[in-house]
């Protein structure tokens, strides 16, 4: 009887331990080396915890109503669904779709056009953008310094009470770098603990043939700027990478997005023009002109039969990582609720 | 009226002083074409980074500044921060003063710095990352811009627009001053056309190269 109880205890113990582990899996071995080191033990890492508070706190915006999470929702793999273009302070509409945030440590540069070269610098962009958060680092620092809640949090994290730009930015970056998603069915198959269905296998082959040049495994992006021949939206005329590099050949090139978690990250493309995966496949199949006769990176239209489409989509759905999306360590922090009640 | 900025140089310390500083450009008839500044023209901000300041003699570093980076800010409120001190050096007869005009590319490629490199100094682009190496702002009625303003934010550390400049100036013991000749820089800028530079581009590189040639020792 006693030994049974011990056994039960151990079984429960391992179940709990396993649950925690799958909540934040270590990156699997088939991944390339990341550009940034991942925060150590993210569940207990103070810098990550501080970054998470900042990420969810409306204090970052000029009118205290917009947080990073307003546009990057954990339940949408940190993308912004329903909004083609981002939606910021005072209901301002931006010019691009808010991308999903995960596996950022494997990114050489950020934004659709690569305008940000380092993750620590990234948050300055939304913070200062009059259409996103409409604030500034100076304003934010003064709010943080006059908040006893944050004075304490910074002290706990850094063992002194200094609150400066670098600490704010590095904390945000630490939280963002902790957001990783490698727990999809695809990953289980890779690890040899699950099998694809026949349909998924056939979709995988089609993917390999038509998509993997740009959406390269295992990150499902080659990290490059490419032109997938989207017709120019003349109301935005977003020239993409050209805006940063000023090189003619970069006109209308955008960062190849990852295809992980697509079920959560709609609408698609830099301007959120497509609501459904079928719309995306329609685009890749069409030979419509892109509106400016540019040379693009698709060699020819990718025309698939009805069944092939279904297979390809079945494969793409194996890239969804539900455990990541519903991982409580990424969602709104309890602590912040208490702070908001006190304010 | 002088429009040059002085960098005083002693045996062991370099001091940027405000001494001869004048932010308003006078109607100096000697200001050369194409820039004709009249009395309404003025400069409201002139700031730049310098990095890795050191003096070498026979390929050895004989003096180096305390900090890696300085933000030289010719603004009435910030004059004190323009002092540059370094380690005590032995008596120096001659050498080569070397520094990077701007934030060196390696530092730029990293994340966010502290002190002079803190983005609240207004020398970091926010919508696109990287330090502004050199900022020159003012008003000139040559500029067909809102309120006749010109804003040159020169920066960029990635190919093909690397803007930081390596500067080397021969010095000898008697020479006490490093001068930045603002007048000379202005003479290379046609404010009618080049009134707004806000991101790395060819012009930014060109004007940084011009700025490089405006330093000399006295």
Order of helices and strands of chain A: HHHHHHHHHHEHEHHHHH
Strand content of chain B: 35-45%
Strand order of the largest sheet of chain A: 1-2
Distance between the termini of chain B: 18 Å
Low-confidence stretches of chain B: 1-39
Short description:
Chain A is an all-alpha fold. Chain A has 16 helices and 2 strands.
Structural write-up:
The complex is a heterodimer of chains A (343) and B (218). Chain A has 343 residues and is mostly helical. Chain A folds into two domains: 46-181 and 328-342, Cytochrome Bc1 Complex, Chain D, domain 2 (Orthogonal Bundle); 185-320, Orthogonal Bundle (Cytochrome Bc1 Complex, Chain D, domain 2), CATH 1.10.760. Chain A is built from 16 helices and two strands. In chain A, helix 2 (46-56) packs across helix 8 (165-178) and helix 10 packs across helix 14 (306-317). With 218 residues, chain B is mainly beta. Chain B has one domain (4-217). Chain B has helices at residues 105-109, 182-187, 202-212; strands at 4-9, 13-17, 42-57, 60-64, 69-73, 83-85, 94-101, 132-139, 149-155, 165-172, 177-181, 196-197, 215-217. The longest helix of chain B is centred in the C-terminal third of the chain and has 11 residues, at 202-212. Chain B is globular. The chains are: A mainly alpha (343), B mainly beta (218). Chains A and B meet through helix 4, helix 5, helix 6 and helix 8 of A and loops of B.
